[in-house]
Amino acid sequence: MDRNSLAHRDIRTIDDVLNLLDGLFAPGADRWTEGGADWWDGFYADRDKPVPFFVAKPDENLVSYVERGLLPAGGKALDLGCGPGRNALHLASLGFDVTAVDLSPTAIAWAEERAREAGTENVRFVNGDAFAVGLDGPYDLVYDSGCFHHLPPHRRVSYLALLDRVLAPGGHFALTAFAAGEGGMGSELPDAEFYRRGGLEGGLAYTDTELRTLFAGLTAIDLRRMHDEPPTSPNFGESFLWTALFHR
Predict the structure, then answer these.
(1) DSSP string of 126-142?
(2) 9 — phi, psi (to 5°)?
(3) To 5 degrees, how large is the angle CA 86–CA 130–CA 225?
(4) Which residue, of 76, 128, 201, 228, has the greatest Cβ tally within 10 A?
(5) d(CA 152, CA 132)
(6) Single pTM value for the model
(7) What is the DSSP code string of 198-209?
(8) Domain 3-247: which CATH class?
(9) Alpha-carbon torsion angle 46, 226, 75, 124, nearest 10
(10) Dist. CA 14–CA 1, nearest whole Å
């Protein structure tokens, strides 16, 4: 968005309001809007950094959903904020036809490299803003591991609209997000304070009640802290995250 347009009296649509609110953050400060791709490219550039989710392992909750019969294997899946593709590749191994989206070209390149090494063909990686790129839903599963908690508060409107548009009737939505409370990560500041500060303090932490309220249009099947997984585990798990599974 052209920041100079903020001085004009040109707000006519919801998108105009959302874009104006995007502009209240410093470039890259919310890691989503202007400058966000550059921030994430820098983040993913050093693959040897001790970042927990750089491991080539799927989320333990995602593995659990299928093993427990809570999530049928197969169908069309959308992975929002896929990063280096660890969950997208796992979904593809289960027989899902996967579309995986990320804002960072560096993350997408890493994910495509992993897919080639694994010989995985039923996954399509898309570089771009999930709210702007064309997504060929409906999807039987929308999966989000760590994208939602990096959105500024007003972009929840866009997120819920995206879910409403692409999630198939009878489909499932699952996510992991920063958990508020003891041992958590992310900021617990009130929504309005982020706009006063012009940044998201590294991401937003949520309570389980807040997640149930925000996604009240869906039926909650499972909502719990993610299990800590040891380094020897084939799965990824950190207890500072919520895991949630919803059904439409």
Answers:
(1) EES-TTTS-----EEEE
(2) -95, 65
(3) 50
(4) 76
(5) 16
(6) 0.92
(7) TS-TTSB-B-HH
(8) alpha beta
(9) -10
(10) 14
